[in-house]
Structure formats: C-alpha cells, structure tokens
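Quick one, T. Sequence first:
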Amino acid sequence: MVKLACFGAGRIGQVHASNAARHPNVQLAYIVDPITGPHLTELAQRVGAQITDTDTVFSDDSIDGIIIASSTNSHADLLLRAAQTKKAVFCEKPISLDFSLTRKVYDTVTASGIPCMLGFQRRYDASFRAVKDRIESGVSGRMEQLTMQSRDPSPPPGSYVKTSGGMFRDSSIHDVDMARFLLDEEIATVYAVGSCLISEEIGQAGDIDSLMITLTSISGQMAQITASRRGPMGYDQRLEALCANEVLNVENQSQNVLSISTSAGKLQAAPENYFIERYRQAYRDEMNAFVDLIKSGKHPLAGIYDGYEAQRLVEAALASMQSGQVVSLASGWTPTIHTSAGASQ
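Structure tokens:
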C-alpha cells in the first residue's frame, strides 16, 4: 500500500485527493491546507484523511510520496523539502514563478534522485496520446506543422491574474509542454505576440488575455499556439498535426454525443465546461502513473526536466513579446530579468 499526503484542498487539490483515495493501492493519510473551512473538512472526511500541517507530513517516515496541489508560491519549498526527506513528488505546474528558484529546485530534485512527476495532464489525455502514438508508429510520416487552439470559457478576475504569474506562465505553459511532447525534440526558437483585447480588468492587472506563440524545433518543425481567455463556444481545446502522410485532428470533447437535427440545421452538445471536466480521465491516469512511479519506478510522461523546460519556454515567449524579437534557445538561454507579476511588466 502506497501512503500519500496531499497539499492543497482547492479546486485541483480536490481532484487529486479524490483520485488518490479511490486508488486501490493508496492510503491518503493527510491533507494539508493553510486555509481552513468547510472545503477542507468535507474533503478530509470524504477521502478518509487527517488534516495536519507540513512538518508532520515531512517528519512521518511512513509517507511514501506527496501531491503538491497547493498555491503556486508553495511549490518550490515543498519540492525542496521532499528532496531533503526523500519523498516522491507529484507536483502541479509551475515549479515557481521565479525562474532562478525554478532552476535551483530542478538542480536539487535531480541531484536527490527522488521520483518526481509534473502535472501536465494533457500528456495523459486519451485523444492527445492517440496523436502521439500514431506519429510514433510511423504511419503518419514526419510531423511538419502543429497547430493548437486553447481558449477558456471566460476571463478570470483581475485578482487571480495578479497572483497567477500571467497568461504565459499560468495557462500557456500547458500548450508549450504539449508542443514539446508531440514534436519530440527540443525547441530552437520562440516568437510570441500578445494583447489585451477582452478584459479591461486583466489589462489593469498588467497582463494580456490573447496571445500567439510560434515555436520552431531544432530540425525545423513548427508549432503555432493560439490562446485566448475567452472562447465564444466555451472551453476550446483543439489540435491539428500536419504530417507527411496524413492530417491528425483532435476536436473539442462534448458534454454528450447527442445531436438534434431539424429543418433549421443540426445541434450538438456544447464542449465540456472547463479543464476539470475536460481532462477528467487524464487526471485519473496521472494519479495511476504516480502510484506506478512509486511502486515500480516506471518513468512518468512528465518529469522534473519537463517542468523546467516548459517554464523556460514560457519565459522565452514572454521575453519575445516584450522585445518584439525572436528568442533563440541555443546555448541554454534563460531569462535575465525576473518578472514576478503579469506578463506586461
């Protein structure tokens, strides 16, 4: 039996804690969250875990691993403590909003040798995995161009933007990670543009709500990411891979498969409401992968290096938008200035 502790009882903490508790080979022993309230007590009761503090978790030698689903500003410290106490980690992105701290955590976790998995759930989505598997089979031929659309149902409030790290670090980090995953080679150049076209509140918070990122791999493959904080059709997650022999498409996942046809046309269900619903299956498979990592050492689809590299790419995209220039990632480019808040600083 694998014994785990979960940090965070918010939206994503509820998902991971519930999936861990459902796993037949897991005992979810502890829940840690500095914000007390009904959300915390209800979750602890539902999953059969004890509410405790950080020190108790790390001093308990029976805990095999931790789930970091707490606020972003807590991730780095928890990763460092896990490395020190030799506990396996499943951590939500990003590692840190401070890239110098991200590098320190990456170096420390790598040197410690602890099992570490990063929460890029799209890698575990069945549709995106089918694209990856088909390309790797050789049937599609070499992928030449990748196009991705990523749109939220509606913009977040300005208060969220001020602490999230901005659209690049908060949201588009998933897109650049998926590009790396499907291109299956490192990125050579990054070019990005961004504007505030939708929400005046987001602009006042110093961020953008609309962006495009162009990535070029070391062999010349191209990826184009289009992202917006508002999707008129709802949560919008689509992908097209142009390959030598065929074109692969992933469309939006509907809430159900019912369609209604009349003389006026054809209606079908809207896309899933948001990422929690859209990636429900992927979150379950992520937790299964974390347990496999602890029990058998099976390498996850996203490790600490992937978290570091995705962070480096969104920092490059932010630098490109600010300078108007293409950023070359050759020679291990890293950001020279830390920008801690919104993307327009």
